[in-house]
Amino acid sequence: MLKALAITAALALAAPLAVQAQAPSINDAQIAHIAYTAGVIDVAAGKQALAKSHDKAVRGFAQEMVRDHTAVNDQALALEKKLGVTPQDNPTSQALNKGAAAELETLAALKGGAFDKAYLANEVAYHKTVNGALSATLIPNAQNAELKSLLKTGLKLFTDHQLHAEHLAASHH
Predict the structure, then answer these.
(1) Nearest Cα residue to 19 out of 93, 83, 73, 88
(2) How many C-beta atoms lie closer than 10 Å to residue 71's C-beta?
């Protein structure tokens, strides 16, 4: 549990710093890649929770994460195709993927209530990180109006996710 929280804390600290460090030169192709990567990561975490958790509320939340992040990513892919934009890998996306892989590995070793608590704690921290990056860096730096609009829609939805995760985490202590 402590290791999971340490990794979560490291990811929560590292991701915004990586986004901020890159902010002056971040472009729409990189922004699109970061946003898409963040969604893919949460879909993977949700699928892991569905495979491991027996808690009805946790499973319901995980299903919501898989559904919503898949839907937003599908919209992002459609927009990228329409605009002819190829998402560009970047240090922020790479840092997110590295942190997520470590977190999934840590969560994989947990069972029952310990898994549920760690998963929910990670979801709270992860959504705080992503929402912070969206509001502070990705949305302000997006040049394309349609991309900016999609990011704003995502931020509203993911803020609801964060509140839901916080509520569930409080009830699973």
Answers:
(1) 93
(2) 12
pTM of the model: 0.84
- For 62-79, write each residue's pLDDT tens digit: 999 999 999 999 999 999
Task: Give the domains, in start order, of the chain with CATH numbers.
Answer: 2-6+26-171 (1.20.1260.10)
Whole-angstrom distance, CA of residue 165 vs CA of residue 160: 9
Q: Hey, what long-range contacts does 70-75 have (CB within 8 A, 24 or more apart)?
A: 70/39, 70/43, 72/39, 72/150, 72/153, 72/154, 72/157, 73/36, 73/39, 73/40, 73/43, 75/150
And the tokens for 157? 């939805």
Distance CA 1, CA 121 (A): 10
